[in-house]
């Protein structure tokens, strides 16, 4: 019942590209080992998707998405065909369980399936199931802690079909939020002091994914229905533009007088309110009462004024995060483009890092 093309927690050291498929577009990253615990960004590329091709993490049009993947792969200049893909967190059930440490590998797999049936609201033959042994259980050294993950078969198969139709070979399937955390942990490992609580807000097209972390451990996670789509829609309504043109002008800033005060500033205030609300949810549902640093990622993170507005409303130090910070850059990497787009590549970068697990 485990994934037959690799493992959700697979650790294959292959030439590998991270392939992030979101509702707004395709993002692709290839990393290499630069030695001395350094990574090098060899290439990255993005390709927009038609509206409706991916909705709420579900691939609705395999042909449109696979064509976009093929264009992004060609644009990037990579030669690697193996890809690491991500599943939206909302479509994956994860659960930590405790099992006897004396189980053989075969018996362990059987026991995981038995335990999984208690937590998965589908028949096991309808799901893809995988697991990873984390290590000895905290309060029972003779037992082991195991993370199991399960998702509907068709959701995995759709992503596999997209990659294969683009001429690529799916090798690893991860969870997007896990990939994002791997990317952010690489950056914060050296910068943050032990014990600091970090808030990561990935602001996408329709959804903001919130992760509160401490020393690499997740304290809290949630998704909020808020993203850059609302800003684009406001531009469409106010200026009579097509959705695609509004998206383009949102990025270039080529909009009429009054855009700043009438449209952008209310959006920034709403975004800051969403961040503040998520922080309050965290405080009221956990024993914690402070966050030391906020990081913004996703395609909306670089919208002018967002960092300043969030920092002002939350009273918490806030920064836009680049997953490529501290990396060497390959000769084909365009630095100006990278600076403008880097925060949107958090998931793709984390997926590409699976090459080095």
From TrEMBL:
PANTHER family assigned to the protein according to its UniProt record, in alphabetical order: CELL DIVISION PROTEIN FTSA-RELATED, ETHANOLAMINE UTILIZATION PROTEIN EUTJ
Location of the SHS2 domain: 16-184
Protein name, entry field: Fimbrial assembly protein
InterPro entries per the UniProt record, alphabetical: ATPase_NBD, FtsA/MreB, PilM, SHS2_FtsA
Pfam families noted in UniProt: PilM_2
Gene that this sequence comes from: pilM
Gene Ontology biological process: cell division
Taxonomic source organism: Oxalicibacterium flavum
NCBIfam families: pilM
